[in-house]
Design brief:
By secondary structure, the protein is of the alpha/beta class. Helix content is 33%, strand content 10%. Strands 2, 3, 4, 5, 6, 7, 8, 10, 11, 12, 13 and 14 form a twelve-stranded mixed β-sheet that branches. A hairpin with a 3-residue loop joins β6 and β7. The structure holds 2-acetamido-2-deoxy-beta-D-glucopyranose (NAG) (12 copies). One 2-acetamido-2-deoxy-beta-D-glucopyranose (NAG) binds next to loops.
Length: 640
């Protein structure tokens, strides 16, 4: 799919018809930059030639962690140790003295717990429910470090992964200097996270973005056109990623100069002050239009883009994406390129299913002439290819020729991280090299008729891991029952632990704490298709997400935080030969799936709010809307 030339007509029409405000005042721009990741792209959105470092970038094998990650982990471990001590200062595990335990084993950090958090896809629903969980896990949230709460889990974590809607959450946090959810929930006009303005209309005038809808479209069109003019393939995902940036990044002009790799160059990240962010996307095989369970799963970490899968089994320096690698190295006649990894393009890549939202421009209150021009452009796009991000040049061109289905492709097609049904980004966290002990898997998928999760994402990851000599490539994952069992046994109505008994695993694998979206004080099963939320709806769903993670501040189970503590410590206890405290035995009998199944077809799944709905802000999904939209042919949305 090429957008070649298509944008010039839009840009021209818009700039001609409007006295659009001129470019941002440079002084205001530099002031607006304080406190974020780095605006280090050489030329805005346009990938640009730069001189190569003395040691030219190469693709490396996925056999090990990158040297960057290995050295960063050493720094991070000290930070997670002190954060865990703080966490267990208010999270009591019976009368077991966790602080002394951690101190006793501090000299051998591989004995200490290694925590991952994964935030699923599912559009704005996943963004908001995931945000509620992250808010609950964050020690900086008011009252989160009091009894019955889980503040400090985020600070204790080594990894935080997100895909699709979950990647918007990661982008919002990391590109904005690891900001808090509370700060993203401001009520000021023009601030970030103003979901009352649909992404189709663009940001409110005023505030950091200072744009009206027409200049919003003009700016997006110009950015994407410039990339095209520089000789790079563009797709609808480029437009989508730019649009997302205006909503997620607190920087003027949609943070056009912010790269994803700049996270790795941010001082607080270098100092190990927060977890390693991992964004997941899928590969679409050449000649295939459906992304199957054996598709390649990519990760974007702050240093690299690539995959652990046996297909490619390699990683390329993220900062140098856009350079013409051949067989894993950069030929001497080729130059280095920077600026391809625009932060918005990365989260846009992870959420390509949603670029279809752009097709709903007619539902907005935009002036008809803006709609007409945009419709005109969209109609010229090749619809069949709509949902890809074009990684052209393919950084893995002629790399691992024998195993890679992509080796002969000059372009790599990358799609939404949930398209292979693994809608919770567990893949980077189950890589044996990372030695993760426990994953908090926050699932906001819309699996059931009324948009609640039913374990489909975990089933997909489990099934993939069974092909251990093939696509699973040595990853192990706890046994997961079928979705009917999830619903019949209520495993999707409260947190459930999988893989408690490590001797029943096919290899080293984390304990998975499944945290499904469930109604407490709001009906948080909002439709994947709803594009705008006022602040009340937004805050209600975030609060509900907080309650999902804390089981309503432990009012649903007074032992909940102790049980979270037990899940964190379980694998560490095994390594150090520590007897399980009796509270943990009790927790595991309550929360661990014990192998029971009931695969009969359930009658339906329609939970009501456990605490009663506090406000009418967050309405439940209307099935009629769902059918109408499905009938209109975007059935893929049902998956996320
Ligand atoms: C980012 O946030 C940290 C922690 O709040 C703060 O110390 C630091 O100064 C901020 N960085 C910038 C560049 O503002
Ligand atoms: C990652 O490691 C490479 C090689 O050791 C080094 O050149 C590069 O600067 C590192 N990247 C960052 C962002 O620290
Ligand atoms: C971690 O902490 C230990 C003990 O305080 C210290 O000796 C070590 O240098 C620290 N390591 C890093 C990488 O900061
Ligand atoms: C924190 O707890 C105090 C005391 O219970 C309460 O008054 C206050 O509203 C709480 N703040 C938040 C943000 O929940
Ligand atoms: C994925 O599976 C399909 C059918 O099961 C097969 O045709 C295809 O070649 C497989 N792709 C890879 C990369 O293994
Ligand atoms: C570099 O050399 C290769 C092989 O001769 C050629 O295909 C490619 O176009 C050259 N690249 C540039 C930038 O000239
Ligand atoms: C918007 O509505 C017009 C007029 O009904 C129609 O021609 C056009 O195809 C629609 N655009 C989109 C993107 O659906
Ligand atoms: C579970 O979700 C899948 C879609 O992810 C759906 O096809 C299936 O019918 C659902 N089953 C139950 C029991 O909810
Ligand atoms: C296992 O994965 C390989 C590709 O890695 C694929 O060809 C094969 O069909 C898969 N087997 C099953 C049972 O899914
Ligand atoms: C133990 O492993 C077997 C074989 O993989 C599996 O069928 C069973 O469900 C597992 N039990 C639990 C509790 O995970
Ligand atoms: C927010 O939206 C909900 C649902 O549409 C509506 O009931 C509520 O009145 C709105 N609240 C505000 C403050 O606009
Ligand atoms: C554990 C395992 O099977 N690793 C394999 C992953 O894929 C690469 C590339 O095919 C193999 O070299 C590894 O042995």
């Amino acid at each position: 799919m090429k957008v070649a030339g298509l944008f010039s007509s839009l840009a021209l029409a818009l700039s001609g018809a409007l006295a659009a405000p001129s470019a941002i005042d440079p002084e205001e721009f530099s002031l607006a930059l304080a406190g974020r990741a780095l605006p280090n792209a050489p030329d805005g959105y346009t990938p640009t030639n730069v001189s190569c470092p003395a040691s030219r970038p190469t693709v490396r094998s996925a056999a090990k962690l990158s040297p960057n990650e290995t050295s960063w982990l050493e720094t991070r471990r000290n930070k997670t140790l002190s954060a865990m001590k703080d966490f267990f200062g208010h999270v009591k595990v019976g009368d077991f003295d966790v602080t002394s335990y951690l101190d006793k084993h501090a000299s051998n950090s591989s004995n200490l717990p290694n925590i991952g958090i994964a935030v699923s896809g599912g559009g704005y629903r996943a963004l908001m429910n995931g945000a509620g969980a992250i808010k609950a896990f964050d020690s900086r949230t008011n009252n989160a470090t009091t009894s019955g709460h889980l503040g400090g889990l985020l600070q204790s974590a080594t990894y935080l992964s997100g895909l699709s809607g979950g990647s918007w959450l990661l982008g919002s946090i990391y590109i904005n200097n690891f900001t808090t959810i509370s700060s993203l929930q401001t009520h000021t006009d023009g601030a970030v996270w103003q979901f009352g303005n649909s992404i189709l209309e663009g940001p409110d005038t005023g505030g950091v973005q200072i744009l009206d809808s027409a200049s919003y479209y003009k700016d997006i069109a110009t950015a994407v056109e410039d990339k095209k003019d520089a000789g790079f393939d563009t797709s609808i995902t480029d437009i989508w990623g730019r649009a997302l940036s205006y909503q997620m990044f607190n920087a003027s002009n949609g943070g056009i100069q912010y790269t994803w790799s700049s996270i790795g160059e941010t001082q607080d990240f270098i100092d190990g002050n927060y977890p390693l962010p991992l964004v997941v996307a899928d590969g679409r095989n050449p000649g295939e239009s459906v992304v199957g369970s054996n598709s390649t799963v990519y990760e974007f970490n702050p240093w690299e883009f690539g995959t652990w899968d046996p297909t490619i089994y390699g990683f390329v320096p993220l900062k140098y994406l856009g350079s013409r690698f051949v067989g894993g190295s950069l030929p001497s006649n080729e130059t280095c390129v920077n600026g391809f990894d625009s932060a918005g393009f990365i989260i846009g890549t992870s959420s390509t299913l949603f670029n279809q939202f752009l097709l709903q421009i007619n539902t907005t209150s935009l002036p008809t002439w803006v709609k007409n021009i945009f419709t005109d452009i969209l109609e010229k796009l090749d619809k069949a290819d709509d949902d890809i991000a074009a990684y052209d040049p393919n950084p893995f061109y002629h790399y691992n020729n024998d195993s890679s289905p992509y080796a002969a492709q000059t372009e790599l097609d990358v799609v939404d991280g949930g398209e292979d049904l693994q809608n919770v980004p567990l893949h980077p966290l189950i890589q044996p090299e990372r030695h993760v002990d426990v994953i908090f898997a926050v699932d906001s998928s819309a699996d059931t008729t009324y948009s609640w999760p039913n374990g489909t994402a975990l089933v997909a990851t489990y099934e993939r891991s069974l092909n251990s000599t093939g696509i699973g490539n040595g990853t192990a994952f706890p046994a997961i029952p079928d979705q009917n069992t999830f619903v019949n046994l209520g495993l999707n109505t409260r947190p459930t632990f999988f893989g408690c008994n490590s001797s029943n695993l096919t290899g080293p694998a984390p304990l998975v704490v499944y945290v499904p979206n469930y109604p407490y004080s709001a009906m948080s099963n909002v439709s994947t298709f709803t594009l705008s939320y006022n602040d009340t709806q937004r805050d209600d769903i975030i609060l509900n997400g907080y309650e999902v993670a804390t089981m309503a501040n432990s009012t649903r189970d007074g032992n909940w935080t102790a049980c979270v503590g037990c899940a964190i410590l379980a694998r560490s206890f095994e390594r150090t030969g520590t007897t399980l405290p009796s509270i943990c035995t009790q927790c595991f009998s309550n929360y661990c799936w014990n192998g029971t199944t009931n695969s009969t077809t359930p009658t339906g799944f329609e939970p009501t709010a456990l605490l009663g709905v506090k406000s009418s802000g967050a309405g439940a999904l209307m099935p009629t809307l769902l059918s109408a939209i499905l009938a209109s042919g975007v059935a893929l949305f049902a998956l996320v």
